[in-house]
Design a protein that fits this description.
The chain has helices spanning 6-25, 32-37, 72-85, 118-124, 145-151, 155-165, and strands spanning 46-53, 59-65, 101-108, 112-113, 131-136, 139-143, 179-183, 185-190, 197-200. With 202 residues, the chain is α+β, with helices and mostly antiparallel strands. It has 2 domains: 6-109 and 186-200, 2-Layer Sandwich (Glycoprotein, Type 4 Pilin); 112-183, Dna Ligase, domain 1, CATH 3.30.1490.150. A hairpin with a 2-residue loop joins β5 (131-136) and β6 (139-143). α1 packs across α3 (72-85). The longest helix is centred in the N-terminal third of the chain and has 20 residues, at 6-25. The radius of gyration is 17 Å and the shape is globular. The protein starts with 5 loop residues before the first helix and ends with a strand.
């Protein structure tokens, strides 16, 4: 995945917010409006949109696409709308909250499957750089790279939380039946509601 400039990251965050506000406020909103504004974003990459309450930092929604199933100009508004209205862990965003939320966009690299013994897997995970995805039968979970830093986790904590979030026993990541992938992301985030957008680095 290429690195996006600060200006590009700001445009993506602004259009993610526009998608949220227009979808919630207008019954005639068409996502193609955002696609046209992002007509030069033809990259096919995974993307997640996260929404936090300001100033508490409590999560209000997070949804997206781990795999590049389309161009980012199409996936971004879909992820933003889903994060604001479809995340089953949170009540939908209200129009009364527009001035109380911060929008974040994560641009994801392709998945890399982790292999080897459990100690090899743990050593290959770098906090702040790597996000993880787990699949095991009907169970799955994903943790974005910066979450481990915000929670103060080490590599083993991250792997344990990955399993627990999928509804599994914490240490089940040591089993060879579980498939774990890692990925990196470039993160752009508002510093305050509708405020300056900055790239967030570990």
């Amino acid at each position: 995945m290429r690195r996006f400039s600060g200006e590009e990251g700001e445009r993506l965050v602004r259009e993610a917010r526009n998608s949220i506000e227009l979808f919630i406020s207008s019954p005639i909103f068409n996502k193609r409006l955002i696609e046209r504004r992002l007509s030069d974003f033809d990259d096919e990459i995974g993307v997640f949109v996260s929404i936090e309450h300001y100033p508490t930092g409590n999560q209000r929604g997070r949804m997206g696409f781990i795999r590049p199933i389309g161009k980012i100009k199409k996936l971004l508004p879909e992820a933003a709308i889903a994060a604001s209205t479809e995340d089953p862990r949170h009540v939908p965003i209200s129009h009364l909250e527009f001035d109380e939320i911060i929008v974040e966009v994560d641009l994801l690299t392709r998945l890399i499957k982790l292999a080897g013994r459990s100690e090899d897997i743990k050593k290959s995970v770098k906090i702040g750089r790597d996000g993880l995805m787990l699949t095991y039968g009907y169970h799955s979970n994903l943790i974005l790279p910066m979450e481990a830093i915000s929670k103060g986790w080490n590599a083993e904590d991250l792997l344990n939380e990955l399993c627990e979030g999928a509804g599994l026993e914490k240490h089940l990541w040591k089993s060879h039946d579980i498939t774990i992938y890692k990925f990196h992301s470039q993160v752009f985030k508002e510093t305050s509601p509708r405020g300056i957008v900055r790239e967030i680095r570990p």
